Amino acid sequence: MKSAPGRDSGVLRLPWLVGAVLLAGCTRPVHSPPAVSRPDVPRKEPRRAAPTLPDVTPDLKGRTIVLTYHDFVPHRNASSLWFDCTPDEFRDQLDWLEGQGAVFVTVDDLYRHLTEARTIDKNAVLLTFADNYLGFYRFALPELRKRKIPAVMFVHTGFVGGRTGRPKMDWRQLQELSDEGLVVVASQTVTHPADLSKLDDAGLKRELTASKAQLETKLGGTSRYLAYPNGKFDERCAHAARSAGYAMAFTEEQRPSETAKSVWTVPRYVHTKWKAAWEDKWAPNRPSSSR
Q1: Rounded to two decimals, what is the model's pTM?
Q2: Torsion sign, CA atoms 263, 265, 269, 271
Q3: How far apart are CA 61 and CA 256, in angstroms?
Q4: CB atoms near residue 212 (< 10 Å)
Q5: Where are the alpha helices (H) located in the chain, listed in sequence order?
Q6: Using CB atoms within 10 A as the burial measure, which of 81, 101, 189, 217 is most buried?
Q7: What is the per-residue pLDDT for 254?
Q8: Distance CA 276, CA 283 (A)
Q9: Could you count the other beta carbons within 10 Å of the beta carbon of residue 279?
Q10: How far, in Å, CA of 240 to CA of 242, rounded?
Q11: How many C-beta atoms surround the C-beta of residue 256 within 10 A?
């Protein structure tokens, strides 16, 4: 019986076909099929780590203390708060510090010391004032002028000139300070949130950038320094301060300045701890003071 012609010829060609396939496999690589894109599945971007905040210059000499004052009242009464200071108390504190040999420095002196390792007096003290209270203008500024002591006033710009509750300095008075140069006018946000770290990213950015822009528009120059309201912050706030263009920012962690991890987390002592702050300066192994 004869085989069908097609079947016979297929059998005869089989070795040739196998050889052809093997030959092709040796001369041309076999590629995987192209990946099929899936537009319905969003592509995940790799998570980027937040950039590291620059440390202050390591191994700095000295232990500089920064004090922060708030409102000033003519005398104490039943309505006085813990952060109030009278003119007599202020004079007594300055007398005591000067008697210990304190040298009052500018905020620019401290910035250059922390970032460039510029020499600063071993007895250096920086005075700062919070919340733009009119009491500062009436009771503290005359004493600073008399002694030629430089200082910083941190302002929440949304309440400049306010007369509700405790009155605030107005833009004319802040311009006077700025023009005189003894007191640097700096930012303390727009609305003084109780805790900046509780704000979302947009709110945090608005508080920092808008206050800086207002100070620069109203007073001229560049607003370089910031104080976190109530001293409250977290690492996100420090990154936001840097992104907003501030050169240095202050907390209320009650430690010498040189212990700061970055120039956006510089510690300050509340003024009621002025003696403890001075003792911390000369006792490096002593635990930091608390409010």
Answers
A1: 0.80
A2: positive
A3: 12
A4: 24
A5: 5-27, 87-99, 107-116, 134-135, 141-147, 171-180, 201-219, 235-243, 274-282
A6: 189
A7: 94
A8: 10
A9: 13
A10: 5
A11: 21
